[in-house]
Design a protein that fits this description.
mainly beta, Coagulation Factor XIII, Chain A, domain 1, three-stranded antiparallel beta sheet
């Protein structure tokens, strides 16, 4: 992507669109943006049994339920959920189309859920953005920028905001000879 003749973003087209939208049409935290043709009318954080959560637990299941109202027929809307850290930085997010969900043509009320089988967020406080877009992810129908808060508890530790699920082990060091006979390198 170019800005005033300089490259400001390189990568896949969907990532370039994300970058553009974040820079140009991002609402301020707590604000809503969109055409209103379809609205997210409710957001709930649920456990694996569908019960409301007061706090999510790092490493356990989290379901983000989005209740919507399509005021007119909408073809293949795309839902998005994003998690933001304490400094407002994007920690991670997902879209319904990345996982193959195609709702087809819809109208009226409904619910979609995104399931995180093992929540990768480390303990802390996060803000959450939710949105619903047209099928090309260029027109937001409804976008709640950092409009929800999620507290995550648990015993996991790490650097940053996400748990990387590392597995450490002690390995045997093997030295190999370098051509010309010299010090070896570990492999």
């Amino acid at each position: 992507m170019l800005e005033e003749g300089s490259v400001v973003h390189e990568g896949e087209p969907y990532a370039a669109v994300d970058h553009y939208l974040r820079q140009c049409v991002k609402p301020a935290a707590g604000e809503r943006l969109g055409t209103g043709e379809m609205e997210i009318v409710g957001v709930a954080f649920l456990d694996s049994k569908g019960e409301p959560l007061k706090e999510a637990v790092s490493g356990e299941s989290l379901i983000v339920a989005l209740d919507y109202e399509a005021h007119k027929p909408i073809t293949s809307p795309i839902f998005s959920v994003g998690f933001y850290g304490p400094e407002g930085e994007l920690v991670g997010g997902c879209r319904s189309n990345w996982e193959g969900l195609d709702l087809g043509r819809i109208r009226g009320s409904g619910r979609v859920e995104v399931i995180f089988p093992s929540l990768a967020l480390l303990p802390g406080c996060f803000s959450v953005s939710v949105s619903v877009w047209d099928d090309s992810v260029t027109v937001p129908y409804d976008w709640h920028q950092q409009g929800y808060h999620l507290s995550v508890c648990g015993n996991r530790v790490g650097l940053g905001n996400t748990y990387l699920a590392p597995r450490w082990r002690r390995a045997k060091l093997v030295m190999t000879e370098v051509a010309g006979g010299g010090a070896g390198v570990a492999t």
